[in-house]
Amino acid sequence: MHFPPNHVRALFLPLLAILLGFNGCKEKTPVAPRQAIAEADPEARLLEKIDKPDFAVFANGKPLTSIVLSESAKNAPILIGHMRHSDIPDDVPNDIVWAVELFRQDLKNGYGIEIPLGETADVPNRIEIDLVETSVDKEDEISVSFPEPNVLRIRGGQSGIIRTLFVLLEKYAGVRYLFQGGMDGPGLGVYYPPLDSLAIPERAFTRSSAFTVDRSASQTTYGSHWKADQNRLYWWNWEARLGSKARASMEHSLPDVAFPLEQYASAKTKPSEAIFPIQNGKRILPWKDDVRKNSHWQPDFDNPATEDEAVKNILAYLDAHPNTTGFSLAVNDGGGFSDQARGSESESYYSWVNAVAERVTKKYPNVLFGVAAYREVERPPNFPLHPNVITYITLDFQSTADPDVLAKKKMLIAGWKKAGRFGVYSYNTGDTTYTLPRIYFHEMQQMIRHLHQEGAEAAFTERSYTTAAEGPKMYVYQKLLENPDLNLDATITDWCEAAVGKSAAGDLRQYYTFWDNFWRKKAVQTNWWKSSKNSIYLSLPPFGAYMYALEAGDMAKCRSLMENVVKQALANGTADQKKRAEFLMKTFEWYEANAMASSGEFFNPNGSLPDARTAAAFIRNLPEADAAFKKSVQIPLETKAWIAPKITTSGLDAANPVIASMAAVGSFLDDPGVVDELRQLAVNPKASPKIRFLADIMAKSASGDDSGNLVKDGDFSTDDHGGFLRAPEHGKIERSSDHAVRGAQSLKCTINHSNFTLEFPIPKGKVATDYYLSAKVYIPESQAVAEGRLNIWGQGTYHVGDKIMNRGKTRNIPDIILNPGQWNYVSATIPGAKLTDSLRAGITLKSFEEGDVVYIDDLRVYEIPSSKAP
User: Do 276 and 285 contact (CB within 8 A), yes or no?
Assistant: First the structure.
């Protein structure tokens, strides 16, 4: 993922010319004729409307202006808020220099025009870039003026200058930065309208942006610390054109500088152990204990030594990197507070934040400290925060489609507004985790507008790696951060017209409207929504239960729209619009393959199959679904424009939806037609070996055939099943004849605690061998589902003397919401592992109410022969 060497030389050698500065102003005459050009951007404030000749940029294939940088712009520091990225090598140009080069690239790529750098007699006009030193929150403010007939001057802060360069191309050339392009430049991601000439009306104006301190994403500063031949790649290029800037810093990075674990590990003299937490009565020393570097532990924020250690290390870092604009003090991920802080995490943590900020800003008064209102510290403390602290409120814009969630988030925002300066950390992830296009334009505008109205200054987002897969989603997000009150429909329509041409834009707009409505009206009926809408972010599984919101004919409708898009673009679009339409069709085909692989259109929204007839049709379709899954893994690899295929496809094989969806058939194993379809599937050569094997197992379960089952008493007819509660005080298990699916009895679980885990030891297991685990689970029809969840899992185990050690636990099995009044078939795969000589099957019941009962029956574990492995 590096720039080719020849591209690097072409990109950076011209930068030497920027050493030219302002050399006075010569009399020059604009050349380009006046033409109809759009007004300056609507959020800008015009200073004059005097009828003057337009400022010519190019005409008839020739440049008519040069670009000249002031000394302040040429020598500007590289401002990266992310503290781990602030140690920039000397061979990396500053952001303004880089942006000027991107601006020149765009004119060359779009129109074949090479704008010279520095004062030159070869062209009549010049664009002057004049950097003004200003505070971070004023950095977006710029003025565009025409002090002389041949001069366009952009004057202001660094981020404002960078954005304005590309605003000029957007507003007056009609260029659209649609989505991130490939390694060699913008590629398909930029639309260049055909132009013979370009001129800018000589109307002075000022402009700024709504979110003034920070507008960055998880990719904005990606690679910013690398050497020049690897630097910044495509993430920065696309986002910076649309106004991203990283000035504050907010992520889980306490162990990098404030508490440098790597240094602690190698140092002869260790820090005081008192600064680390006591969890469950035990002192945790994260540089040597079995914990992740930046998760599941927090410093002991109540200990004065913790404050001293952090201040010492942060000051040392800032002494070495004085241009750092922002420093993260955000908590580590995954909890892990000290025992004594339980229940008062916000007061404990934010008191520490205030103390650190107060001491550091005595020496570095302008540095900003980013913190996250996340998990245990989501609520504001009962005191104000230091004025240099910016709190990022974590939320998923999509979840605010629920009125109750929206009300809660607005209350949270109001609380943080009282506490001090704040921004938002939003979760806009797409094809890295979701296997349908996740679009929620209205919720995005609603929340960004509300945050701006309440005074939010900063915005950070986790987003999709392949922005094209979700069309205008992230483009709209960037535009909203600049102007929350923009005309949403007009902006999306404009994007579609630029992307594929006006004749194809209507169908493309309908395609995105379908997905916008899908998540608002259909996905909210699924267990995915019901189980995670109140969480900080919505559940992220590929092939999650949101796939069950699809209805028969949905993907056919989307295909028809996209086929029309391609047809119209090929007939009427420009060359790049034709290619873009074909690429967008490719992204649709990935989603279409995902939908087919999950068999989503067969299911009810709750993840069940409607009836035995549908179950039989679903079984017949499984070979086709399996082929679709293989296709979904391959599609991103077929085009270079899909930038992150390894990320896009990683881990999906372990979560093959074809295998997971087969569990739904378990509710119909008493139907002869369904069982017959399973038997036919078990010998169908078109099905993969694993699907055939599982079909055979399910048919055996239907007939009561126990051959091959490694569980001794899976129908719980005796007490020889060996099952036990991990913590006996969490409830009670007993055999019961209340309900049974096989034999006369089942295992009744009466729950007294939210953490209720059953374990079943399997005495025999083989090394590096996979196993299939299944069970049937019942909850009474009269018992409310509430928040109760089930997770089925298994792991390899091995003996060391009298101790049993664990290996290879089931991964990424989503929690299951059980349907009351019926037997739910649940299953998982136990992965093979080294040293395995035995197994453990497990069922964990979470968040049930005290006194709830759950019945378990027909527990089975089968070896998956290696010859039948997929």
Answer: yes
> With the CA atoms of 68, 70, 74 and 76 taken in that order, what torsion angle do they form, in degrees rounded to the nearest 10?
-140
Top mean pLDDT of 411-425, 452-466, 680-694 is at 411-425
E strand intervals along 726-837: 731-736, 746-751, 755-762, 771-778, 789-800, 803-807, 824-830
Give the position of tokens 């520095």. Answer: 118
The CATH architecture assigned to 5-241 reads 2-Layer Sandwich (3.30)
CB atoms within 10 A of CB 834: 10
- The residues, any chain, with a CB within 8 Å of residue 44's CB and separated by 6 or more, are 205, 206, 207
Structure tokens at 823: 């037997």
Correct CATH for 724-868 of 3.90.950.20, 2.60.120.260, 3.30.70.2740, 1.10.600.10:
2.60.120.260
Q: Are strands 176-177 and 151-156 parallel, antiparallel or unpaired?
A: unpaired
pTM, whole model, 2 decimals? Answer: 0.86
Secondary structure class of 643 (helix, strand, coil): coil
* Per-residue pLDDT band at 41 (split at 50, 70, 90): low
Distance CA 668, CA 820 (A): 15
Q: What is the pLDDT of residues 188-238, one digit of tens each?
A: 899 999 999 999 999 999 999 999 999 988 877 666 666 666 666 545 688
Q: Could you tell me the residue ranges of all domains in the chain?
A: 5-241, 530-703, 724-868
Note the pLDDT tens digit of each residue in 95-126. 899 899 999 999 999 999 999 999 899 999 99
Segments of 114-273 assigned E as strands: 125-131, 142-148, 151-156, 176-177, 190-191, 197-200, 205-207, 214-217
